[in-house]
């Protein structure tokens, strides 16, 4: 993502729950899935909702960080690999595994996980155009120059009245 995204897309907890549940509805017909691999940390929250809706109890993580500095993507660092028992599913192809993340932006993170699980099903709640081809299922597309603000990154703050020069 570019250093300063022009548009902001703030998401409340209610909205995120609704969108994650909508993702589960879409995934319902795409399974069955033996396990979920969630890409931490952002994937943890939608993975919990999807796991509950699809009654999947085998949950693994792959821990990847790349946005070390706000809105600036750096080098991708894999902090924890996928457990070999999960990687062995589908005869080592990842077939039957559902990979969940909160969003796909450039697609770099998802592409790295695809190399680990080539036949897994990739799902995100939100997708930007550049990353869209890497995911199999998503709910809402936002433009590439939009920054999505998640509820776990935000708090309630005072809003100046519009008449006093507040910007939309
Ligand atoms: O498609 P990309 O351009 O690769 O970006 C998408 C990734 O970036 C964010 O994770 P981040 O690295 O910020 O770590 P976090 O999930 O711990 O916040 C987001 O949760 C995705 O995993
Ligand atoms: N919170 C957040 N993290 C990101 N990582 C890559 N793109 C985004 C984004 O739009 N919002
Ligand atoms: Mg992430």
From TrEMBL:
Binding site for Mg(2+): 102
One Pfam family of this chain: Pribosyltran
Residues bound to GMP: 105-109, 147-148
Main location: membrane
Keyword Cell membrane: yes
Keywords: Cell membrane, Glycosyltransferase, Magnesium, Membrane, Metal-binding, Purine salvage, Transferase
UniProt: 5-phospho-alpha-D-ribose 1-diphosphate binding residues: 41-42, 101-109
Subunit relationships: Homotetramer.
Protein name, entry field: Xanthine-guanine phosphoribosyltransferase
The species this protein was found in: Chelatococcus daeguensis
């Amino acid at each position: 993502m570019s250093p300063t995204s022009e548009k902001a897309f703030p998401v409340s907890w209610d909205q995120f729950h609704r969108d994650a549940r909508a993702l589960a509805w879409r995934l319902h017909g795409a399974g069955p899935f033996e396990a979920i691999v969630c890409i931490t940390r952002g994937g943890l929250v939608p993975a919990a909702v999807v796991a509950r809706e699809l009654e999947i109890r085998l949950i693994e993580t792959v821990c990847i960080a790349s946005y070390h500095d706000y809105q600036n993507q750096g080098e991708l660092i894999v902090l924890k690999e996928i457990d070999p028992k999960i990687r062995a599913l589908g005869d080592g192809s990842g077939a039957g595994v559902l990979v969940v993340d909160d969003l796909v932006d450039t697609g770099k993170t998802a592409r790295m996980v695809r190399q680990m699980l080539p036949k897994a099903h990739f799902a995100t709640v939100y997708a930007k155009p550049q990353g869209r081809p890497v995911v199999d299922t998503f709910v809402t597309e936002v433009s590439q120059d939009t920054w999505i603000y998640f509820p776990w990154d935000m708090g309630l703050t005072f809003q100046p009245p519009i008449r006093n020069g507040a910007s939309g």
